[in-house]
Design a protein that fits this description.
With 112 residues, this protein is α+β, with helices and mostly antiparallel strands. It has helices at 5-14, 32-41, 43-47, 78-82, 85-103, and strands at residues 20-21, 49-55, 69-75. It has 5 helices and 3 strands, in the order αβααββαα. The radius of gyration is 21 Å and the shape is elongated. Bound molecules: zinc ion (ZN).
Length: 112
């Protein structure tokens, strides 16, 4: 998916997955809320992330009484993205086995 230059700026800044005050792109981007909401419905969603917002209040830019929102890209499903593919498949296989045992009337959790 091709990003507009403005969205590219936001994605580039949020790439490190830390909080960033909106002042970091304020001068370069118009209507950042709209861009961010579009990103959340498109590009970020595709990548498995969502851009969250919280009032900065100077926590991230250091300017007291900063009225802007700070943003951060967070994984939509932390487990799914942190787990390796193998782990995920093992978990799925395990859940399927539990369901199979349940359906077959076997003890679901075997006592070791
Ligand atoms: Zn700020």
């Amino acid at each position: 998916m091709k990003l507009s230059p403005q969205k590219e700026i936001i994605v580039g800044i949020l790439r490190d997955r830390n909080w960033h005050c909106g002042s970091e792109w304020l001068n370069r981007i118009k209507d950042d809320r709209i861009r961010i909401s579009e990103l959340n419905k498109g590009y970020m969603l595709e990548k498995g992330y969502v851009i969250k917002g919280e009032p900065c209040k100077g926590r991230f830019c250091g300017r007291t009484k900063c009225p802007l929102d700070a943003r951060k890209a967070v994984p939509l499903t932390p487990l799914a993205t942190q787990q390796s593919k193998d782990e995920r498949e093992a978990m799925l296989a395990y859940s399927r086995e539990l369901v199979r045992r349940f359906d077959a009337g076997e003890p679901v959790f075997s006592v070791v």
